């Protein structure tokens, strides 16, 4: 099964920029799966959780998000500069924090994290989807429009600036 790289987005490590990551991912997935597809909603929610964790617990000035899609799954990778801890599941039903990893486990086909050789931490997850077949060529996955941004054929690279919006709940 061939996986299509939908792009890379580099996001400054400040909490107000999580909204920019959500918007970027939604802009990559909606042309493929359509508006209101539950896999888009799940992927955006899970990106919000993992990106927030990377910003809060990781070090470094930026976090990198990569998005991939194939005929059955969306794969999102969130890579930060590493930090003092790795993702840990906490059991605190009355706690204010610590619900992100249980949500990740519940909504994904699979997820994991890995410490890279250079010290960075990558958290990835896969969300299953069912895309409407493209009638022109019989394939299930359609790549979004636009021109390739790099020689390897990936699309949609970006670097986001600090979010000046006052609405952190915007999507």
- In round numbers, the mean pLDDT is 76
Strand order of the largest sheet: 4-5-3-2-1-6
Distance between the termini: 31 Å
Counting DSSP H or I runs of 4 or more residues, the number of helices is 3
Structural class of the helix and strand makeup? alpha+beta
Question: Could you name the ranges where pLDDT drops below 50 across 5 or more consecutive residues?
Answer: 133-156, 161-171
Instruction: Report the strand count.
Output: 6
How much β-strand is present in the residues? Answer: 15-25%
Question: Which of globular, elongated, flat, extended, rod-shaped describes the shape?
Answer: globular
**Which sheet architecture does the biggest sheet show?**
6 strands, mixed
> What are the secondary-structure elements, in order, as H or E?
EHHEEHEEE
CA radius of gyration: 16 Å
Helix proportion range: 25-40%
Describe this entry's structure for a reader.
This protein is an alpha+beta fold and 171 residues long. The chain is built from 3 helices and 6 strands; from the N terminus they run βααββαβββ. The chain has a 6-stranded mixed sheet with strand order 4-5-3-2-1-6, covered by helices on one side. The longest helix has 20 residues, at 38-57.
SSE layout and pairings?
Blueprint: E1 4-12, H1 18-33, H2 38-57, E2 62-69, E3 73-80, H3 100-107, E4 110-115, E5 121-128, E6 158-159
Parallel strand pairs: 1-6
Antiparallel strand pairs: 1-2, 2-3, 3-5, 4-5
């Amino acid at each position: 099964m061939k996986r299509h790289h939908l792009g890379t987005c580099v996001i400054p490590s400040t909490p107000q920029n999580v909204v920019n990551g959500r918007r970027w991912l939604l802009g990559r997935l909606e042309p493929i799966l359509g508006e209101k597809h539950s896999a888009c909603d799940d992927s955006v929610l899970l990106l919000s959780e993992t990106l927030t964790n990377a910003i809060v617990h990781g070090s470094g000035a930026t976090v990198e998000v990569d998005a991939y899609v194939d005929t059955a799954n969306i794969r999102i990778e969130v890579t930060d500069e590493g930090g003092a801890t790795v993702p840990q599941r906490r059991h605190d039903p009355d706690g204010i924090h610590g619900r992100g990893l249980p949500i990740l486990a519940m909504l994904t086909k699979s997820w994991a994290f890995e410490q890279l050789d250079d010290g960075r931490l990558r958290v990835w997850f896969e969300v299953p989807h069912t895309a409407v077949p493209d009638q022109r060529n019989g394939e299930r996955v359609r790549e979004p429009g636009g021109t390739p941004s790099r020689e390897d054929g990936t699309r949609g690279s970006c670097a986001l600036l600090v979010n000046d919006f006052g609405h952190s709940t915007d999507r």
